[in-house]
């Protein structure tokens, strides 16, 4: 897969990417293709570099080697202004939801539109209502983050990530700290984004039930060798990957009582 030519359906791709912080190598030999309108999972044990890979996909970390392309365009060969334009296609939901505590939920969602567009205030208000409606938080527009639950904060973070109508969304551990029902609800929203809006989604997650349910493809990073050791959907990795480490990771939750088929 890694050396196959990019197809017109490929939205994000990496070829032989090496990621490092100064002298500290995190991962090398990363090659991947993310299809438009799919959900791509970044998997692997703690500290293997999942968040670092995500960081490099949103342009916050430049690979020390290799090529990163967005819709066939070499991201790091582009001018800073062009990269900025590409970044506007990205929506990011951080672990905590990362909301401003001194602003209401509505103000939080409005912020990217106020900062990055010239939309008139009435349009911003309408867009805020639309985004909050999409995540089921229409009634929370005037509440502060401290007044709503963790699951609602995640959804508010998602509404803010959707503010600029991104076509590529990045989620770092979206269900961390959520109970299974709230987490399943977030999965429904993520599936709606793919199926209803045609969004392309990259997700870092440890939550196997969620990964099996939503992800179409993915990559498994190994901390020891500092390389990807498997490519495929979570279910493919669970059922067909010969690597014992991958197999153990992907069947872990099942043995603990998960009923995912
Ligand atoms: N800014 C940084 N400078 C130096 N090292 C870093 C930096 N950020 C992360 N690291 C290191 O990079 C390695 C990978 O971290 P990363 O957070 O990407 O892993 P992860 O797979 O997302 O982990 P987890 O599942 O525990 O969240 C770790 O050893 C981490 O300490």
From TrEMBL:
Residues in ABC transporter domain copies: 12-250
Keywords: ATP-binding, Nucleotide-binding, Transport
Molecular function terms from GO: ATP binding; ATP hydrolysis activity
Xref: SUPFAM superfamilies: P-loop containing nucleoside triphosphate hydrolases
Family annotation (PANTHER family): PROTEIN TRIGALACTOSYLDIACYLGLYCEROL 3, CHLOROPLASTIC
Protein name, as recorded: ABC transporter
Species name: Acidomonas methanolica NBRC 104435
Lineage: Bacteria, Pseudomonadati, Pseudomonadota, Alphaproteobacteria, Acetobacterales
